[in-house]
Design a protein that fits this description.
The structure is a single chain. This protein has a 3-stranded mixed sheet with strand order 2-1-6, with no helix packed on it. A 3-stranded antiparallel sheet has the order 7-8-9, with no helix packed on it. A hairpin with a 2-residue loop joins strand 8 and strand 9. It is α+β, with helices and mostly antiparallel strands. Helices cover 14% and strands 24% of the residues. About 12% of the residues have low confidence. The longest helix has 16 residues. The protein has one domain. Keywords: Lipoprotein, Signal.
């Protein structure tokens, strides 16, 4: 009888605990601070995201393909709507590129990473060719110069 009572108490205790709440996945788009530039948009891994002046934000359209997309990989979007942290979710969207890749957008502008940004916080692509710029959480391009030459937050 005592064993049965102990078993019932243990079972009740274990079931009351339930499974732990799952950890929240990092947002697809989040805010990062860069000295000299202010708040900019980064991906879920903390990598700085850029916009290309030759693209279109309205309607959203990309003009970066082939060799361009090798140097400036599109910020890939998953099947679910993009998640944001510190950014108006209404500005976030997805563009389906001509090659079928789903690309994150902000304020309609397609977003890209830069291959020469090798770690979170780097902004080595800022101002490249006068057409590539980090993007602010509001969806507008940031035209300043990073205080530290582009090497970190």
């Amino acid at each position: 009888m005592t064993r049965l009572l102990i078993a019932v108490i243990v079972a009740a205790f274990v079931s009351a605990c339930g499974p732990a709440a799952p950890e929240r996945a990092p947002a697809d788009l989040r805010v990062a601070f860069v000295s000299g530039l202010g708040d900019v948009v980064a991906d879920s891994q903390g990598r700085t995201l850029y916009r290309f002046d030759l693209d279109s934000g309205s309607p959203p359209a990309t003009n970066c393909a082939g060799a361009c997309a090798t140097l400036w990989p599109p910020a890939a979007a998953g099947a679910a709507p993009p998640t944001t942290d510190g950014i108006d979710g209404g500005l976030a969207g997805v563009l389906v590129r001509p090659d079928g890749v789903r690309q994150l957008t902000l304020g309609g502008w397609p977003l890209y990473r830069y291959v020469n940004d090798t770690a979170p916080g780097q902004v080595n692509g800022q101002g490249v060719d006068g057409t590539w710029f980090v993007i602010a959480p509001s969806g507008v391009k940031v035209t300043g110069t990073p205080a530290d030459g582009g090497s970190g937050y």
